[in-house]
């Protein structure tokens, strides 16, 4: 394969309900860094219908170009039409790098497209860099890092012989580029004739689960409980602390596996990656798989009765003590502040 024919960093701009998802904006942020090193541009690929404003927003969020396919068949995600459309775009535009969010949609779509275009895919990346140097500077590889062997090591993977280099990236890991309406708007309306036979499934109805709590990936403040909470009934005290701070609760896998907290609250390698301004870890030991999901938080407070708990290694403030004494005291103090 002649790798030098392939140019540009492409980002799949995942949309749901005709709204571009946050992960796509994060990927544009990362894509810009990669593109700068490769001296190329970032192109967002948007598939949907009636999404002209969102296409424009992608430019304001840092995309140099947007390829927008406006087609009824792409309104709601369905595997076959999406794979067909994206495959056509990759064959035609020949990107050097193609990034997807490691969401349910990205995880379904990316491997199918990579198989069709006969390239590799590194799933669930937490780090992306360009190799520092090479004998052939025009063929610099993307170094894709992801946890391996149960999160005990980080593996860095390259795809030197095939293009595009494809990766899925976990939501919340990369930093979104700054929004600016000064950015030029370059939207290409791209036409694809998606054959009717491509669509083997009819969506009759979409039933949404109503979230009563804030999504933990969007929360600025998280109060997180682990096995040290000793039971679901004890989460009420964490809920109270989270409410007072204007945040929400999250949990370690131990607490989720015990059935104390729903799975959508889980932080970590097999849960969600979060980057709040404040993360309060209560009765969480700080296993590597948990840290993988929260260590990029801006400020970390850990409360644990074991002073040797590894969570203290990443904490900005560590409190050695019993959660059931420390948390009520924090609540009391915060209530005084609010009066
Ligand atoms: P523990 O490790 O049991 O720690 C409980 C802590 O509470 C202890 O440090 C203890 O000192 C403290 N404590 C107890 N009582 C009190 C008290 N009254 N006051 C103060 N402190 C107290 N884990 C995740 O969290 N997220 C993941 O996504 C994840 N993915 C995984 C993927 C794989 C492939 C594997 C193998 C594991 C994964 N794990 C994950 C599990 C991880 O290895 C740990 O088992 C888990 O994080 C432990 O949760 P914990 O810290 O709540 O419990």
TrEMBL record:
Binding site for FAD: 227, 252-253, 266-270, 283-290, 304, 322-323
GO molecular function: electron transfer activity; flavin adenine dinucleotide binding
Occurrences of domain Electron transfer flavoprotein alpha/beta-subunit N-terminal (ranges): 9-208
PROSITE patterns for the chain: ETF_ALPHA
Key words of the record: Electron transport, FAD, Flavoprotein, Transport
InterPro entries listed in its UniProt record: DHS-like_NAD/FAD-binding_dom (IPR029035), ETF_a/b_N (IPR014730), ETF_a/FixB (IPR001308), ETF_alpha_N (IPR033947), ETF_asu_C (IPR014731), ETF_asu_C_CS (IPR018206), Rossmann-like_a/b/a_fold (IPR014729)
Requisite cofactors: FAD
GO terms, biological process: fatty acid beta-oxidation using acyl-CoA dehydrogenase
Signal sequence region: none
Cofactor details (free text): Binds 1 FAD per dimer.
Protein family (similarity comment): Belongs to the ETF alpha-subunit/FixB family.
Name of the protein in its database record: Electron transfer flavoprotein subunit alpha/FixB family protein
Lineage: Bacteria, Bacillati, Bacillota, Tissierellia, Sedimentibacter
